[in-house]
Amino acid sequence: MPKRTSAKKKRRAPPSIKQRPPTLVERPYVVADGITQSLLSSFVDCRVQCKFSLLGWRREQTKDSLEYGSLFHFLLETLYECIRTGSITHSDDALVDGPWWRKTLKTWRAKMAPVADAGATQQTEFCIAQARGVWKGYVRRYLEDFDRKRWLELEGVFDTKWNDFRLRGRRDGMMRIGKELWLLETKTKAQIAHEAIEGVLAYDFQNLFYITANQAELLAKGECGRIAGVKYNIIRRPNHKLKDGECLPDYSARIAEDVLVRPDHWFVRYEVAYPESILKRHQQELLWKLRSFKQWWEFDQKHRVTGAPDGNIGMASLLETYRNEAACQKRWYCTYIPMCGEDKTPYNQDGILFEELED
């Protein structure tokens, strides 16, 4: 009788590990790594600021205004994704202190914990108290957001080719309204200057950069549909001061009372449709900016060791890295002001290429 031979068990392939891209400390940035709208905006504002960013320098302490914005983005991303997947179907499911709220804030605190000292933890709790005061009014204001069919994607990362340049970024959301596609862009602001915002939105660089890149991405995938415009979603950041002896729950309640009385003061949405003429002009100017950025950075990298040639020779003077002092103080102070004064104390060279694309 022939001997039985046992079949060899197939070895399971080890799970694939996502390779971490090299940091800017390990390998210098090259234009083929991609260009985000924030990087290009930084280049247009100030070449020194842009270079510090491309060398991987980051300020260690996050401002509370930035953390409040990041927290509110996280809350909205989580909420809308739950609506899109059907785990939240009604505004009551997202109430403050409900199961969803507690779970989401637990995740946020865990996200902040690895880099938090006592001061940072206190700042996080203060920002949570502010968001808690605003949240109920926001949810009541936009009940139409709880339509599951509305949301196509939340916090989607795009990485696409356009005119031989690699455009990268993260969109807040993409929605379908009727037969049209719209992008969602959320901003938190302490002040909402309606006339100025309405005027600038007509040719807003970030909005048009995102429409250009996302339209290119759709075409590359063979998908039809034109992105009609952007829903510009503004949430006011509380400027209420914490009173002497006031606890955070009472502080939140004071903000919430104001929000419910004056919702128009706290929440604004602009529906900005971009005609072909505006988009065409933006894309021409975008191409000029991208080419200028590429020439500048490749010139800088070529001469960073040997030193730049005489500035009077040819186009060299147009490609040098210089400060634009007018960009130091605009709506906010440039984060690299101390470093321009040769003080590197508040900074850490973490080498992260595109911080906004990090999960």
Q: In words, what does this structure look like?
A:
The protein has 12 helices and 7 strands. The protein has about 350 residues and is of the alpha+beta class. The chain has 3 domains: about 35-60 and about 290-305 and about 315-355, no CATH class; about 65-145; about 170-280, no CATH class. The longest helix is centred in the last third of the chain and has 28 residues, at about 275-305.
Sum up the structure in keywords.
five-stranded mixed sheet; 12 helices; 359 residues; alpha+beta; disordered N terminus; 7 strands
Major sheet: 5 strands, mixed
- 3D shape: globular
Task: Please state the structural category.
Answer: alpha+beta
Strand order of the largest sheet: 2-3-4-5-6
How many helix segments? 12
Poorly predicted runs are 1-10
User: SSE string, helix = H, strand = E?
Assistant: HHEHHHEEEHHEHHEHHHE
Distance between the termini: 61 Å
Number of strands: 7
How would you state the average pLDDT, rounded? 86
Topology summary:
Blueprint: H1 37-45, H2 47-54, E1 57-59, H3 64-85, H4 99-112, H5 118-141, E2 151-162, E3 165-177, E4 180-189, H6 194-201, H7 205-220, E5 227-236, H8 248-261, H9 263-266, E6 267-273, H10 276-303, H11 316-319, H12 337-340, E7 347-349
Parallel strand pairs: 4-5
Antiparallel strand pairs: 1-7, 2-3, 3-4, 5-6
How would you summarize what this structure contains?
The chain has 359 residues and is an alpha+beta fold. It contains 12 helices and 7 strands.
